[in-house]
Design a protein that fits this description.
The protein is α+β, with helices and mostly antiparallel strands. The protein is built from 22 helices and 11 strands. Among the domains are: 20-121 and 129-140 and 304-323, Glutaredoxin; 324-431, Serine Threonine Protein Phosphatase 5, Tetratricopeptide repeat (Alpha Horseshoe), CATH 1.25.40; 439-515.
Length: 515
């Protein structure tokens, strides 16, 4: 009964919000690397997408990453003019100004463009800058970054500003100051650095370190991570030593304490004092890079959304952010109505095909997939969904031999249609995990491509380890699993990877016994 009441209440809220935003004006701006949908004014929308493209170029310039080889789909961004609306749409009650989620088929970001009332408030664009730095660095760097530096460097870059062709790097992350105002409550530098890949404290319902159970330590980790990164990046003395340290702790079996001493030539306590002195003196220098003549001309298309498309902005944003199972029926209704008004048929037919598969409505799924393929015969997402449709919710081994053969053929067709479409690559790779199927070198190469394209997707990390083990490359599988364990972000994630390693070892033992 409670659930029914909630649903009725939600429906009332939905209707009232539709009336409230009846005069909505949304625009879609599409550049080479971003799709921005926003209800802010057009001038600010243009400024936002130009900043995003400039920021992407800047990250490449200062990290020497060759972004010309970026095969990722454009990042889809929903930018709400008002924080209140942003939080209502996603059911956010805290101080969150934005979020970013990497999915197999591409990343999505939702944010507010409204600046906070307080000096230390964080706006959504800064959040996206922070997360996008992870997107680039995790993909192009061969190194695993310790959590303090990964988040600290993200905060450091998030404060980037632009003045024409000039880029200002290193401005203070004022929103982190409240956590730094009392150095007596800081984490010890030793604790900060030894956390390696972990978030310190409780995050996502898991506790990484039992002795640090308060969630405040996560904020402390971000804040001190930013300050420590700022300290190192601003020091000619320590920049090269920092790089040596990061490379050192990435060597298999390395001792994090010994690598610190080796790289910096001093104790944690002495370095801690230097960083605190840096904070007390409020040095925090920023620097300017003149990129005149280097930044390519930023081109983008602008489209004002019609009234029918405006109506789907909120539900589409929720759906793309991973909408819940309870919302499936509502999403189907909204998208079908929009499709009847000719709103973005390519996108909506795809959404409806996905929703039909989730609902096990095979006839509808086939209907929408066929529409997509009639329009574009090599539509990789539709071809990949077709392979799922052919299985009708069953495992491949449960199908008849001729059906299995047809699924394999369809999966290869989907792969050939777009060799950068990750769900298609993953579907192909999973074929080799079927009983009686040999894992080929080509299949392992496909998984390497997947790991490059989506370095932070957990399912891809685990599949790669299992494929290596099944291919008989047990040492490589164990090394990959151990690396995942070493750099796990929480105790829960570490346990999952430890179980994976145990699985690899058990299967290797069974194989050896059988032989």
């Amino acid at each position: 009964m409670m659930k029914t009441v909630f649903k009725l209440f939600a429906a009332v809220i939905l209707l009232s919000n539709q009336a409230l935003y009846a005069d909505d004006e949304w625009h879609e701006l599409i550049s080479d690397h971003f799709i921005l949908r926003t209800d802010t004014n057009l001038e600010k929308a243009k400024e936002t997408i130009e900043k995003l493209e400039k920021y992407r170029f800047t990250i490449g310039a200062i990290t020497n990453a060759d972004l010309s080889a970026d095969y990722s789909p454009p990042l889809v961004v929903y930018a709400f003019e008002k924080t209140k609306r942003f939080r209502r749409v996603f059911g956010i009650t805290g101080g969150t100004a934005g979020f970013y989620i990497p999915f197999e088929d591409g990343a999505i970001s939702m944010l507010t463009l409204e600046e906070g009332d307080e000096t230390w408030s964080l706006d959504g664009l800064r959040v996206l800058f922070h997360e996008y730095s992870h997107h680039i660095l995790h993909q192009y760097s061969p190194l695993q970054y310790p959590r303090w530096y990964d988040e600290g460097f993200g905060e450091y870059l998030a404060m980037t500003d632009f003045d024409g062709d000039k880029v200002i790097i290193g401005r203070p992350a004022v929103h982190r100051f409240p956590n730094l105002k009392s150095p007596g409550s800081w984490l010890k530098l030793e604790t900060l650095l030894q956390s390696k890949g972990e978030y310190i404290g409780a995050i996502g319902g898991a506790t990484s370190r039992k002795r640090l159970k308060t969630k405040n330590y996560i904020f402390q980790q971000y804040s001190q991570g930013w300050l420590t990164t700022h300290f190192f990046q601003s020091s000619d003395k320590y920049q090269k030593k920092l790089n040596a340290y990061l490379q050192g702790i990435n060597r298999p079996g390395s001792d994090i304490d010994k690598e610190f001493k080796k790289a910096f030539g001093k104790s944690y306590a002495k370095m801690d004092k230097e960083i605190k002195r840096y904070w007390y003196n409020r040095e925090l220098p920023s620097y300017v890079i003149d990129l005149k003549g280097q930044i390519p001309e930023i081109e983008y298309k602008v489209r004002k959304l019609n009234e029918h498309e405006v109506k789907i902005m909120e539900p589409e944003a929720r759906y793309l952010a991973g909408g819940s199972a309870e919302e499936i029926a509502d999403h189907i209704k909204v998208f079908e109505e929009a499709l009847s008004n000719d709103v973005r048929p390519a996108d909506l037919n795809l959404y409806l095909a996905e929703l039909a598969l989730r609902s096990k409505d095979w006839d509808k799924a086939e209907h929408y997939i066929n529409i997509l393929l009639a329009e574009k015969s090599d539509h990789a997402p539709a071809l990949t969904l077709k392979t799922e449709l052919m299985k009708r919710g069953k495992q491949l081994k449960e199908l008849a031999k001729d059906q299995q053969k047809a699924v394999r053929k369809a999966t290869i067709t989907a792969l050939k249609a777009d060799q950068t479409y990750v769900p298609g690559l993953m579907a192909y790779a999973r074929l080799f995990m079927e009983e009686g199927t040999k894992v080929t070198d080509n299949a392992l190469d496909v998984m390497e491509t997947v790991r490059f394209l989506v370095p932070d997707v957990d399912s891809a990390k685990i599949l790669q380890v299992r494929m290596l083990a099944k291919a008989g490359k047990v040492a490589d599988a164990k090394a990959h699993a151990q690396k995942l364990i070493d750099w796990a972000s929480s105790s829960r994630q570490r346990k999952r990877y430890e179980d994976l390693l145990e699985e690899v070892e058990e299967k290797a033992t069974l194989t050896a016994s059988a032989n």
